[in-house]
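User: I'm writing a tutorial on reading structure tokens. Could you give me a worked example: one chain, its sequence, then its tokens, then a sentence or two explaining what the tokens reveal?
Assistant: Sure. Here is the example chain.
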Amino acid sequence: MKAQVKELIKEVSSQGRTAEQAVANGLIEAVNQIEGLTIDSSKTIRSSFHKIYTAKKGKNPNIKSLSNNSYKENVLLKSKGLVKSYTVKRIHEKKDGSWEATLTVTVPSYIPLDQNKSHLRRIAVTLFRTAEPQFAFGSGQLNAADISRRLNQKLVTQLTQAGKLRVLDQQFDQEVAKHLERLGAGKAPTKELARLGQRLGTDYLVTGTINQFNLKQQVIKPGFGLPDEAISTANAIVEFRVIEAATQQVLWSNEANLIFNNNDLLKLVPQFNVDQLRQAILGRASDEIANEILDVIHPIKVMDTEEQIVLNQGGKRVRLGTYYKIEGLGKAVLDPDTGLPIKIGGPKTSTVVITEVQPKYSIAKLVAGNENIKIGQVCRRTQVKIVPAPASEAK
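And here are its predicted structure tokens:
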């Protein structure tokens, strides 16, 4: 199926250590604002400029030289369709020796006819900081940076599969990486993180810290000729924040505190294996974090009730056999302290259990509560044990 192509024009301002780098950063930012900052676009445009402008070192840059047709043709050719055209409107050297450029960039936006997701809000997941360089895990040590990368991959997968957000594939340049390192170390306010989110072309930025990720093993000697017994416990503590770039506010902040006893671990991995346990615990942590993020931005809702109860999300976010409370039709009230509206659910709630999970939706069965379920009602996970309703009463 062919894709629609729409040309979008962006005026951007950007900075760099050199005039050429400032122009390159401007092109990247323009592509980023329309299509998101992808690994391919960043690498392709940077590589193009590095090769094309190598011969210009030592020359005084100006609009004419930076807009030279031969250079522009090379850039557009090597950008592989990411940039249709561009004009350098202004270039000047700042007092600190860096350069600032203003460009008008035309970027083609490709929209598959059956997959137009341009209306979806964008979210970027940064690599979480770690409280320690290594985590004690069983008899060995886990590289904390590797744990952060694996958690990032799982979060991106979870959020992507939900199908409610455009998850940006991030490959941060050196300047952005330094910003993140400094911001993650707590040396800058939330507003600066929000500005970074705006620069990345995202509506939401997810940041956090992995404080603990440990597995402890203890051998118990019962005596009386009985064999030794190995008992294991594990825990993972991950702080996370969701920052809204437009308002420069923390939209949500919480701590995922997961504790597993020996029986819990055996349920996760029946045949004890340290590598599988690491993956399983990371999976649970990403489940908790992704579900909270989506509950704040895009909670699960009832999509259809004609023949069965259909919820509008599935994939890895929804698990077979999980219970959900369907909130009654509510209203918005004002918080007397902040004056901000808060949506509250109504009193007529229902409880359903998931009986089938598909990639983009799930099927549920009513087990208790109000039978008059309406499309659009919000669903929240519940840990309450419910006695299933008789089959004749199931919707």
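What the tokens reveal: Residues 171-177, 183-188, 384-395 have pLDDT under 50 and may be disordered. DSSP finds nine helices and 17 strands in the chain.
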